[in-house]
Amino acid sequence: MGDRRPVIAGNWKMYKTGKEAVEFIDDLNELIAGVMDVEIVVAPPFTALPLVAKRIKGGPVRLAAQDLHWEPEGAYTGEISPKMLLDAGCSHVIVGHSERREYFGDTNAIVSRKIKAALAENLIPVFCIGESLEEREAEKTFSVLDKQMSEGLETIDSNDVKKIIIAYEPVWAIGTGRTASNEQAQEVHSFIRRYLTDRHGEEVGNIVRILYGGSVKPENIAGLMAAADIDGALVGGASLTASVFARIVNFPYLL
Asked: For position 245, which CATH number holds?
């Protein structure tokens, strides 16, 4: 892993009211009091962002939004701009999650615009990529990821690529209880790192942190984190309970 600081991020998706979010953070803050050298990120729904921001101020937890619009402002009913996320206390934003791609039509081109918009406001994009079960079974995993990365990062300067966190989420493993084996995950993470090195140079390949997402839980985090190119996790369902998420954050003590 070298100097890449591990990241454990929790994507709450469409769960938790403001009250529930605050209760979760209060519990989490106690449970992670002694954690060192792990970057902890939570991604509540938009309505809870300012409330959570107040509760994590000055602590180790960072705040992410689950999506953003690519324009700084405008007539886009129902959308939220990068500046609004900054104003709400965010430092990170998830971009290109498979659910956004599947249900809301986020193409690689749209994802690229969102990454660029996030970087313009110094928000750290957590750029999600991953293949479906059909694509994996057809042995298209690497070509799918190559396309998602090349089109998603097409207009991004290599100096800016350094600032991005990549999350590999095999779509077949999200919310299904199926997890890529440690070997499968490492093989893909190694491919992603080679891609970054080949396209953007050795420094970028060494610096960018690549997270694994897909039914991550306390029982499998230590094995995943032992892999050379896995720098953390984007956690879904297991990030909704403070005690469970805290165990994942505490992965160094499980190794």
From this structure: 3.20.20.70
